[in-house]
Queue: 2 jobs
Job 1
Amino acid sequence: MPTGIERAFPPKFVWGAATAAYQIEGAIDTDGRTPSIWDTFSHTPGRVRSDDNGDIACDHYNRYLEDVALMRDLGLDSYRFSLSWPRITPQVDANALGPVNQKGIDFYSRLVDALLDAGIDPVITLYHWDLPQALEDAGGWPSRTTAERFGEYAAVAAEHLGDRVATFVTLNEPWCSAYLGYASGVHAPGRTDPAAALAAVHHLNLAHGLAVQAIRQQAPTAKVGVTLNLASVRPQTLLDRDTAAARRVDGLQNRVFLDPMLDGHYPDDIIDETGSVTDWSFVRDGDLDAICQPLDTIGVNYYSPTVVRGYDGDGPREESDGHGDGAASAWPASDDIEFPRQPGPYTVMGWSIDPRGLTELLLRVHRQAPGVDLLVTENGAAFDDLVDGEGRVDDPMRVEYLSRHIAAVGDAIEAGAPVRGYFVWSLLDNFEWAYGYTKRFGIVYVDYASQRRVPKTSARWYSDLIARQVRRRG
Ligand code: PNW
């Protein structure tokens, strides 16, 4: 999208950036916070690259005012961040939420006020993977009580912040929580049990539904949504075994969340095809009614396309789906499916770059949820960024990645998808989960030794793009 002929986005289109609590905050035992599953996981040797952890991260807990000032300088309309559940109700267990930690609420309250003062609209994600460890000890997401406690926690968050926060997102990428946490084990809590992963899928869905109801009650004017890492799944060829594989992956990645949330049922084909793993008896009467709540928005996170093929038993298996090198598969009941490596270019995650996948995905979600607004709640890329002799970080590949994906959002809007905003992942370089600090997704570079923030070329570019779009609004 060369700047000269840049298209106009809708006047109310929201330009933002996103982060998540465990990836940036640090201050893990400050003001009453208790451990989450990511504290435990990252402190277990061998789980995270270089045994990195989130103990300090970007020290955002202590530097949030500087970070808000940075966002104001960039001209962001909106900032998507997540709440750390173990800051809000640090004593939660399977039976009870426990007392609200006022100091935890106060931190987010100050952050929200600072954002509003800077003219930046806060979007709060209630859960971006940092489950209180005590709930994992009681069974974690495969256990129903986790969903029940999540509904209560959502009520607390909406009660204390819903007077100033216009948009709440219940869950971030339940696919990752369920399958990477409980099937491949490359994310916390690191379990490798496909039956547990499918039980986790259901209880994450239930948690979402209970949270939507709680937020509606506490903050009736707030907009409520969920963020899913959906995939636009393409079969490698039109052979039956490849189209069947694509249907299964679409089911396990997309429909197993979208169908219950939007239409109140689980996909029959997926229940059948996972029959060797689980009988789905964790789904109780009334659960689907609880899960299927009207939504104001669906958040789509997109990085890379998904191409699948049915394994025909010939030749070496291809397992380069970018879901980690764990020996266990993320995909329950799918030993017959593989993810052939796609042609480059790639980001340093090894994820192939294909903006058209974002257009396809937005249109696919719009077809299934025609009345629901869409947000791109994450999109971005990791590259090997370096500070040069002048103290600058020049990242032309990220500029190229972002501009082409933003153009792809424009294409989806032109084709009829009601996309209301776009959030770059991420505002800051941060703790990239199993990859530790080795992968930098930020438009702002973080020097972890000094905690100095250096806006990269991409930050300046994004800021200029926003300024041009704001001028067009008149
Ligand atoms: C998302 N996968 O994570 C998360 O929402 C962010 O917290 C994260 O930093 C960002 O994308 C970049 O990774 C994902 O293996 C992690 O497919 C892994 C996968 C997808 C998304």
Job 2
Amino acid sequence: MSFDFKVKDLSLHEAGRHQLRLAEHEMPGLMALRNEYAGMAPLKGAKITGSLHMTVQTAVLIETLTALGAQVRWCSCNIFSTQDEAAAAVVVGPDGTPEDPKGVPVFAWKGETLEEYWDCTDLALSWPEGDGPNMILDDGGDATMLVHNGKSWEAAGQVPPTTDEDPEEFQVFKALVRRTLTEDAQKWTKVAAQVKGVTEETTTGVHRLYELAKTGDLLFPAINVNDAVTKSKFDNKYGCRHSVLDGLNRATDVLIGGKVAVVCGYGDVGKGCASALAGQGARVIITEIDPICALQAAMEGFQVARLEDVVGEADIFVTTTGNFNIITAAHMQQMKNKAIVSNIGHFDNELDMAGLAKIDGVVKTEIKPQVHEWAFPNGNSIIVLSEGRLMNLGNATGHPSFVMSNSFANQTIAQIELFTKPGEYDKQVYVLPKHLDEKVARLHLGALGAQLTELTKEQAEYIGVDVAGPYKPDHYRY
Ligand code: NAI
């Protein structure tokens, strides 16, 4: 079998395969779905383009989708998040060799340029038969945005001219769409017409989907995987509780105990990060705009403050808001010498990296890849992780397998749902029904040795639920 792919080095496949084997053991949800659907191929005929961090855990997701019958093409959704050995293992496949790869086409490596990033996204969306995917699996919405903007700019006859206001990333994106339209003026209309649906992994991508649905511009049905309870209340929270420390440690190895850490945002990700930093003995300060989340932080014993009032006190900063311009260049100049500045939200615009680079006399020194010291003319410097991109994936390897098994079991179920029941979903954004959420949790209990109590029939009647669930109304918040 021969196919196109672009990864760093196929000779890394064996190292990747070993890690995949261990990850499979830690991903009981995905492995249970492989068993449940063995021989049934519910995704036969599905051509899935995935845009999601190309890590070891994602490799297990990809091989689950193919085990269920799908064809897959993949790119990463961030320039720094690929684990090259995982990408190599997926391309080579369990039965292939670097000379004769038998796996899945992947277009991703750690340290892509922005141009390469968008090329890879385009390649993952461009199937060899000259058409596109019929399903998208997205994280952050970049693949979905390429199809939507591509189609609407196609209809308007041109990509709007680049302006100075456009962030660099958007300029590169526009250049890519311009090129694709020169090659095939109908490309994105054709791709959009085939897509049966998208399943979206993260808060930021889901936000984009709801915006499209609100204006009536969503081109196909979408499942919001993020807001499955077994996704955002686990991956965003407990995943970040693990991987925020991993990112800080691998990048700087600074002792966290006794330090002052500011966490901007106290949503699911912020809660996980704050708890991890406090667990290491840091004094944690939270910034929030939402009074409910601010009160939650106060109830947990965290100081809640405005960034400008504490910016000179802290040793470590982590932004978790999914919003932009949270830490400005002016904030950075007021920080303590050698303060560590990082973002774990989906996009790098939480930190004003462009503003930082424009400071008069600022000098950037690479300490090692994805760790940079920015020195100011007054002699102070700050350490910025992953150039402002999500540090748990740029400086470490993202969330551990067990938590991703929850997220990716939801992704797999959502893909089967949209692919096999196209008539049941409109061009809207849906969440998975609660009984499937409960199923995902159930699939993970055994591996932890947890024994679930069963309701008696009488107890079930008394609280008004079915013995087999769902156990909570949809409005329950967990
Ligand atoms: P969320 O909506 O639960 O939390 C964000 C919080 O930030 C909210 O409570 C909001 O009120 C607050 N916020 C907004 N603007 C703010 C401001 N100017 N100052 C202070 N606080 C502000 O969202 P969630 O699920 O916690 O996700 C946050 C980001 O992290 C998103 O971009 C998401 O896509 C990303 N994410 C990253 C992961 C990773 O592995 N790096 C994993 C999961 C999510």
